[in-house]
């Protein structure tokens, strides 16, 4: 069926043996490579099959084995974080022989970056691009199941991406927004409140103390006018919040 690709679970990386050599070198075990190779261990993935009883056969000391075991655990964790789960429609779940029996397949992020390079930001420089990268590959691969061409899939994703990014920007809060500039903070509900407090520090402090101390102090006339402006701005934030979340 057009648009559906059966991607392998393993990362599609060339030079498996060179990767294994580099992996062992990092652990000061590069001199053991031939031992590994002669025992059919030619890829990093193969190291998961090693057990403690194999240590002598591979020429490893107990301490080298412990070091290797720790690094394998770290590698496995990084591998899992470099994959995403794609849900297939019911008509295809049995055809692909999905691993979890629920119509899901695990796909390499690296392969999806190459496939959807027109949608992926290799070096994201702002919150919009960072948020886009957080979901665009999974969105594109899911949508590709229903599109006839890569081009039509990309066009659909671009339209949907804008709405989703607006939603994510609106919901972002501290500490995520702490490094954002004024423009991006103004796209966030919490950011708008932060800007408002910075513009009216006296009012913000007065209201905070009033709530915390359960005070009934009456504001001065000048303060009252500022409070009215502050509340009007809060209503604008409320409207922005409602409009964004209802998209």
TrEMBL record:
<dbReference type="InterPro" id="IPR013761">
    <property type="entry name" value="SAM/pointed_sf"/>
</dbReference>
<protein>
    <submittedName>
        <fullName>Uncharacterized protein</fullName>
    </submittedName>
</protein>
């Amino acid at each position: 069926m057009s648009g559906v690709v059966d991607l392998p679970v393993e990362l599609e990386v060339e030079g498996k043996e060179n990767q294994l050599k580099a992996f062992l070198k990092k652990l000061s075990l590069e001199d053991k490579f031939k031992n590994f190779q002669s025992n059919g261990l030619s890829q990093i993935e193969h190291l998961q099959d090693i057990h403690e009883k194999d240590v002598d056969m591979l020429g490893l000391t107990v301490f080298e084995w412990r070091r290797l075991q720790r690094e394998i655990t770290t590698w496995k964790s990084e591998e899992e974080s470099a994959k995403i789960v794609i849900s297939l429609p019911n008509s295809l779940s049995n055809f692909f022989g999905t691993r979890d029996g629920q119509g899901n397949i695990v796909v390499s992020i690296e392969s999806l970056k190459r496939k959807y390079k027109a949608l992926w930001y290799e070096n994201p420089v702002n919150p919009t691009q960072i948020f886009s990268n957080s979901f665009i590959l999974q969105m594109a691969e899911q949508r590709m199941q229903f599109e006839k061409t890569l081009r039509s899939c990309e066009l659909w994703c671009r339209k949907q991406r804008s709405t989703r990014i607006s939603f994510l920007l609106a919901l972002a809060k501290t500490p995520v927004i702490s490094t954002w500039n004024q423009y991006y903070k103004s796209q966030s509900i919490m950011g708008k409140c932060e800007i408002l407090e910075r513009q009216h520090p006296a009012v913000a402090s007065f209201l905070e103390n009033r709530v915390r101390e359960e005070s009934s102090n009456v504001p001065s006339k000048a303060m009252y006018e500022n409070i009215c402006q502050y509340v009007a701005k809060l209503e604008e934030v409320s409207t922005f919040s409602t409009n964004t979340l209802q998209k």
